[in-house]
Specification:
single chain; about 290 residues; alpha/beta; D-Maltodextrin-Binding Protein, domain 2; 2 domains; 10-stranded mixed sheet; two-stranded parallel ribbon; 11 helices; about 45% helix; about 20% strand; elongated
Length: about 290
């Protein structure tokens, strides 16, 4: 009888131990673990193609997004705004980056404009240039060839070297549209990236170029436009002449995209994404989902 009693007690102890372990596992790996694992469960590849001006922002967003979702791979290819929108419209990319508003023709092909940030286009010159400010008309005159020497603007006796982006660039389209000089610019150099424009201006006395505000560094000198400096607070206030949207276009509305794309935009428009936008020096936008 004692042996039988001991066996019952032993079995009861084992059962209690097992139940306790199961209970502990449920507490540790049940709802809490599921919630913790939700981010890691998202997987797949997200392909983003387009604007070189948006490379810095997109790279930072992609890095943070992949840190949050370790099973996700985000590839970023900088081919220019026009090529990015075309890739999305043709179904060859998830997202097309454009540093300008979409055209009616692009929208007719199914591309949807999702504005994720606002940017300023900074006008930069060689650091040795003594001109510190221009009017919008003077800038237009420079780019259309009406002004060819800096001395005409009170500067040094040097020829103006007009530097800009290649045809199809979102930055070029936005710049020319705002100034009203579409198809009338007389470029000495048409370069295929923001970095190339910066490098050419930095190394060429007399050069003038335009780049996204967030990439400006000490290798060049920026000039004011209509007495307003290219700065985030001025763009936000609407007082700086050259500002444009940063667009991540999709084929159809965000709500109709696959889960990975929807989660990307939830991240970009959320607190983490807009904090990155702000840290880079761009202007945040309200949630436009």
């Amino acid at each position: 009888m004692k042996k039988y009693t001991y066996k019952l007690l032993a079995l009861a102890g084992i059962a209690a131990f097992v139940m306790g372990c199961l209970s502990g596992c449920k507490w540790k790996g049940g709802v809490d673990a599921a919630e913790e694992g939700q981010e890691a469960e998202l997987s797949g590849c997200l392909q983003i193609v387009g604007s070189t001006s948006m490379k810095k922002l997109t790279d930072c967003l992609a890095e943070s997004f992949m840190d949050k979702y370790p099973n996700v791979s985000v590839t970023v290819e900088c081919t220019g705004s026009g090529a990015g929108i075309e890739a999305v419209a043709d179904g060859n990319a998830d997202i097309g980056n454009a540093s300008r508003q979409l055209t009616d023709g692009e929208k007719a092909k199914g591309a949807v404009e999702n504005i994720i940030a606002l940017d300023g286009i900074a006008v930069c010159v060689h650091r040795g240039n003594t001109v510190s400010g221009l009017t919008g008309q003077q800038l237009a005159d420079i780019y259309t060839g009406a002004v060819t020497r800096w001395s005409e603007l009170g500067g040094i006796e040097l020829p103006v070297v007009v530097v800009g982006r290649e045809a199809g660039s979102g930055t070029r389209m936005a710049f020319e549209k705002i100034l009203g000089v579409e198809d009338r610019c007389d470029y000495a150099n048409e370069l295929d990236s923001t970095g190339a424009v910066m490098a050419r201006v930095a190394s060429t006395p007399g050069a003038i170029g335009y780049v996204s505000l967030d990439v400006v560094n000490e290798s060049v000198k920026t000039v004011s436009l209509e007495g307003v400096e290219p700065a985030a607070e001025n763009i936000r206030a609407g007082s700086y002449l050259l500002s444009r949207p940063f667009v991540m276009a999709t084929r159809g509305n965000i709500s109709g995209q696959r889960e990975l794309v929807r989660e990307w935009f939830a991240f970009v428009y959320g607190g983490e994404g807009q904090s990155i936008v702000e840290q880079i020096g761009l202007i945040t936008v309200s949630d436009r989902r």
